[in-house]
Amino acid sequence: MTAKLSDKATGQTLVPAGSEEAANHKRSEYWFDFNQAIPGGQRLILGAAGWITFVLVWHITSQMDLAPERLYPGPVAVFSALQELFIEQSFLSDVMASLTRILVSFSIALVIALPLGILMGSFARVDAVLNPLMGAWRYLPAPAFIPLLLMWLGTGDTQKIALLLMGVVFFLIIMLADVTRQTPKVLIETAKTLGGGRRIILWTVLFRHSLPGYVDTCRQMLAVSWTYLVIAEIVAATDGIGAMMMRARRFVHVDDIMAGIVTIGVLGLLLDTVFRLIYRKSFPYLGRGHS
């Protein structure tokens, strides 16, 4: 039996090198070392391994007769359907319609949320007035407003963009305010000591210090926008990924529905990657682990 030694300074158990326990300990450290930085190539390989495992499990379960093939198609059938959608059914126009709605609605949400979030995070009395209101609106489900939006705005793009906007704007305001609020008070006090006015402190200290957090918050909330997309497009929509999925439902084309789900996931992943690249290029001093 291998003897174990205890390091009194750190309280850790020391395992002799070359033993089986040392090998197990090394494997454990490989997977479960806190905040360990890993090379970009290794990160890419591990990410690909996760996707390959998911597709393999999907393929295996689709071959186990757990459900009729028509209701639970495997990855080969779904990717074949996706190829057919792009080649024969002008699916690209549906993708562009959905992407436009997401980007327009999120841009409007950001224009509204950024100034309000900065003001709420900077000034306690402004926060005291707005936080209860914004906090309450966060708990109202956006789909509950579909009947009102249909009566007020009709069935066109305006109604869909408004629904996507309502799904994220109140969360975005609160989250941007929280990011602003995390600015160290010593920076604000130093700026005041040097004669900086409110406008200078807002722009030079609060905004610039919080900018990395703003970018990361936008990345996270853009993912929430995608979760509302199908809901926005199932009501009287003639184009968009959600509309295609509803057409497929009428004819029980589950492979087309799952192809739409895959498309949303890929588009979301691509936008998330773009935000991560912007973050790393704009704020290299923060390191990879912050986003």
Automatic annotation (TrEMBL):
Note the Pfam families from the entry: BPD_transp_1 (PF00528)
Give the start-end ranges of region Disordered: 1-20
Principal location class: membrane
Record-level GO cellular component terms: plasma membrane
Q: What biological processes does GO assign it?
A: transmembrane transport
Lipid bilayer topology: Multi-pass membrane protein
Alphabetically ordered keywords of this record: Cell membrane, Membrane, Transmembrane, Transmembrane helix, Transport
Instruction: Give start and end of each ABC transmembrane type-1 domain.
Output: 95-279
Checking InterPro entries in the record gives:
MetI-like, MetI-like_sf
Give the residue spans that cross the bilayer: 44-61, 102-124, 136-155, 161-179, 226-245, 257-279
| Cellular location(s) | Cell membrane
The record's section on PANTHER family has: ABC TRANSPORTER PERMEASE PROTEIN MJ0413-RELATED (PTHR30151:SF0), ALKANE SULFONATE ABC TRANSPORTER-RELATED, MEMBRANE SUBUNIT (PTHR30151)
The entry's family comment says:
Belongs to the binding-protein-dependent transport system permease family.
The protein in question is named NitT/TauT family transport system permease protein
